[in-house]
Amino acid sequence: MTRTWFITGTSSGFGRELTEQLLERGDRVAATARRLEALDDLAARHGDRLWRARLDVTDTAAVREVVGRAFAELGRIDVVVSNAGYGLFGAAEELTDEQVDRQIATNLTGSIQLARAATPHLRGQGGGRFIQLASIGGQVAFPAMSLYHATKWGIEGFWESAAAELAPFGIGVTLVEPGFARTNFGVGAAVLGAALPEYADGPSGQLRRVFSGELPPLPVPGDPQKIAAAIIAAADRADAPLRLTLGSDAYALGTAALQGRLDAMRAGRDLARSTDADDTLSSAN
Fold first, then answer.
1. Residue numbers annotated as active site
2. Can you tell me the distance from the alpha carbon of 214 to that of 24, in angstroms, rounded to the nearest whole number?
3. Is 61 buried (19+), middle (13-18) or exposed (0-12) by CB count in 10 A?
4. Is residue 70 part of a domain?
5. How many domains would you assign to the chain?
6. pLDDT band at 283 (very low <50, low <70, confident <90, very high)
7. Residues 6+ positions from 204 with CB-CB distance below 8 Å
């Protein structure tokens, strides 16, 4: 059965790969991007199965207008994919106010406003699915990526709550948590803050030099084609998981981080209990 998808950030990376694979299998795609010309080749090949609109997700009014127009013109959208985003690298002190604001507006607020814009339409048609391109960076953290992690940890919390809100309406949610993948996310496409000498020899400075291309790159095992195929396959399932961790590095990093937090939580059990009010202490387990 042909399905219709709405995807942000389709000019490159996972958004482009998802769009290509979906069109090839016969689905319709409402593709948005800041650079629509990047989709000219797909429009030539697939005709009116590719619906296009220019969109910067930091413009909330435009998000609402484009989402509303897509639903009105296409009739039904089955899956809404929030993919637009980018990486910002540098210690928090090294970033400008504008860089901080833009990172949050794109990766976090833009995703939230897309969800808010699409929810009434999905609810009105009796259901659908949101797919959020998050990151294993929503479970782990590295130096020189504090603002990026703030957006990814933030969107994880948003969807953890919103998934429960939306379930009664037949609207599912899947958070996709890839590791490092062979897209244009890192070297060459990275946005860097202005380096401060105080950080040069620390972990932040070392990672900065990796993303600036001065040091050898980190291992990048993720195959964008396989990741996109796994996302599509998950969306086809009625029992799609809330979280979809993709990549051997994502699995290893994520399980280690979660186990470390669980160990730390358990180590603080007695202290946690000791701060309960006196009339609850006798019933604490």
1. 148
2. 39
3. exposed
4. yes
5. 1
6. low
7. 90, 91, 143, 144
